[in-house]
Amino acid sequence: MKVTVQVVLHADDDTQTVVREAFTLTRAALAPDTLGLQLQEAKDLLAAVQDTVVEHQVSTALSAQITCPDCGTPHRHKDSRRIVMRTLFGTLRLDSPRWWACPCTPRPGVRTFSPLAAVLRERITPELSYLQARFAGLVSYGLSADLLSEILPLGRALHATTVRRQVQATAQRLEDELGEERSGFITGCPADWAELPRPDLPLVVGLDGGYVHSCTQRTRRDGWFEVIAGKAMPADGRPSCFGYVQTYDSKPKRRLFEVLASQGMQANQQVTFLTDGGEDIRDLPRYLNPQAEHLLDWFHLTMRITVLTQLAKGLRCQSERSANITQELQRVKWFLWHGNVFRARHTVDDLTTDLTDDVGVESGKLAKAIREFGGYLAANACAIPNYGERRLAGEAISTSFVESAVNQVISKRMVKKQQMRWSPRGAHLLLQIRTRVLNNTLTDDYRRWYPDFTHTTDQEHLAA
Ligand SMILES: [Zn+2]
């Protein structure tokens, strides 16, 4: 059996049609593996249709501009160049003519023009650029390249570096759209804020730091750098995540402000920041909202106590002593749960004094860790609320009730393999794409840039 697929091209006024044969396939007797189209045939078919359609589009566009709009004289041909357009269905090599400008209406500085190159400024279709970004937001650049090549008739080998470059260009475009950084984002005065409609319940923002491998490692110490990940959770509605590289980003406050604004934050709204108490993110909240409160995330606080408890349990040959320390640490936890920072710190100080008199390697390690914990409590004392009361009142005390931001935003994509290494810029730009993919807002950006971009994600498609 032989099947031919034809493309019928209609003129705009429907007066004439052109029929082009695009694709032919032959089939043996019906069997599971001869049923319908196979992937390679589908790819060939799509590429052939794409070629035919684009050729028609280009010639229609050029013939519409061949004559001068002022006097009707055809433009004289100067030369032509080959432009390469990468599309989902093939790499197209198009002849782009350069024409002389018509002498009837001289325009200073314009002697020639290239109508096709003027329309196709970017040499990639938005949809291919979008898919590269979407895949690379979820899996590695290499895997993204492989997946797209396997499924689509790209017409040219797609390499990990090509995907990376394209994705970074998209991210840079988004970065360029971000407004200027300011020292603070609190505007207006309290009297104006009172006039605003009553806001919803507090907006909860979790901020946390994680580490990724550096690609410029020279010593063991500079092998990692910090990446900040966060999640804004409105009382109802979808949470949205964000991320940035502290040492690269010049606009962290603006970035966070935009995330909160997109979540409907207004000046009279209470915003609760839950952080791990890290130095560099502690200060961020106070620039963003007059009603911001900063609290130590309960999950992070207890994690530290758990680590200390494990160290204490590891003290060999001192089971009684180790049990004592463990018990004291439980008291510290209990004090902290009730916001009693004074007694928690007191207990930690006592433990430190006891342990410092001790000799022995393990207790030395534990003493150091407990002393550091004391310093951590001192630095974050005013960010430790009465967690028990807050919990009873239904207020947020931790961000870990949803998946931790660091794990979701950073770890899954950027640290799961030891050989993944990053530059601060590369990590920062990828984070801008990844967070948009996770928030399901990347298509919105493409629709803003390209009004006829109609791609919908699977979720959007199913919802429709
Ligand atoms: Zn003219």
Could you explain the architecture of this structure?
It is a single chain. With 464 residues, the chain is an alpha+beta fold. Helices cover 46% and strands 17% of the residues. The chain has 17 helices and ten strands. The strands form three sheets. The chain has a five-stranded mixed sheet with strand order 8-7-6-9-10, with helices on both faces. It has a three-stranded antiparallel sheet with strand order 3-4-5, sandwiched between helices. Strands 1-2 form a two-stranded antiparallel ribbon. The structure holds zinc ion.
Write the layout of secondary structure elements.
Elements: E1 2-10, E2 17-26, H1 39-65, E3 77-87, E4 90-100, E5 112-113, H2 115-119, H3 126-138, H4 141-151, H5 160-177, H6 190-195, E6 203-213, E7 224-233, E8 240-244, H7 252-262, E9 271-275, H8 279-282, E10 292-296, H9 298-313, H10 319-337, H11 341-357, H12 361-379, H13 387-392, H14 405-414, H15 424-439, H16 442-449, H17 458-463
Parallel strand pairs: 6-9, 9-10
Antiparallel strand pairs: 1-2, 3-4, 4-5, 6-7, 7-8
The structure holds zinc ion.
Zinc ion is lined by residues 68, 70-71, 73, 102, 104.
